[in-house]
């Protein structure tokens, strides 16, 4: 039985609604459920699911749609009641109810001393809210995506004219004056300022800095196009570098990014030279260079963090691959590979972090002869079906194609675990590589959610007479509420080898796959 309920002028946050959909799908007798706003994208999704009716024709972007499918009318009735209860629970005022305002203007008036606004609204409405914030003299962290390139250029031009920082669009991570914002980690305060185009890249580097005994002064996200597009021209990154240059608490500046536009990269390098402060640069996918004056080039995310900490302490830097002794690594590789069967040939990476995915692809690509993914630089390795892996495949399950109508897998891990379970019976999988990102905004127990899928894949391989090595890394710190030690225990109990960083996990995978080739 199918049922569609339309509630006019009932706006709810999209992430809340996605989580409600996930909860309702688990109810007995319910085969599918979508609770969403009536945006054009969501209406298309419902039609693709076979949901249609006069209610959808009347729906607008500010209207709530509840679409339910169940084995009986009683099951659907119960699900509708559950949706109402969940909506009421999530909308119920808490201790901070006095600070919930009907408009941004009212919020600015109530908190005139505030100087930073986080904006997370559908992309079509984001430019209007950004202009309001900039007009009110506020710096902006723009979490929203689907903002056009033309609008981004206009908004960042306006922000620079006003001397205000616009982080984003699609900026998911920042740490400002010690306050983690959106997807971020609890890190130690210190003298290292970080500028990053990507969220999990910023999380990985700031977490590793903190775990290595260093600390963060500021961590500023720019949004993915800031350095990649010549039209945006590094506007936010350059303003961030200028701000860190003037900040007395910042002694070392770090810049990390996916490959930027060459002209933009040169502007960033010149801006860093101009600061006179020691700077560490890592541009994923581009060859590193030798140190030049105050500039130091790192080869990976972990080296970026450790180099910055060493420089902040006035110490020399000696690069290394693993924390463990080489003999221990060799023994680990031999142990994990020894029982892998001859039919097992391919590596699969199931990631939730985009930058961590890129680092894995960059390190492993040449040795494996090419890696399939959703959006590779070499289009010959684009997956024919994004929902199905082939040969060596590494996917970022946070890509938009995987999250239509669903929360990001850092919030709801089922996007990743469902894929892993679907592919558990693939007898050619030789090794699985995963990340585990904890911290603010993430699932309360990502390792606990991931562990059963790992165990299932390993049992399936054993049943076929093989063995499946699984390598994991955890992005986060001891201060994160998920408790990094318990996360490691959960992954280890499921049979995964847990490495201290994404880079070390990827390097271990590279060595295992190289040994498998010789057998």
From TrEMBL:
Highest taxon, organism lineage: Bacteria
Example GO BP: tricarboxylic acid cycle
CoA-binding domain location: 190-281
Domain (ATP-citrate synthase/succinyl-CoA ligase C-terminal) ranges: 351-510
Gene Ontology cellular-component terms listed: cytosol; succinate-CoA ligase complex (ADP-forming)
GO MF assignments: succinate-CoA ligase (ADP-forming) activity; succinate-CoA ligase (GDP-forming) activity
Name of a matching Pfam family: Ligase_CoA
Protein name as annotated: FdrA family protein
Organism: Alkalispirochaeta sphaeroplastigenens
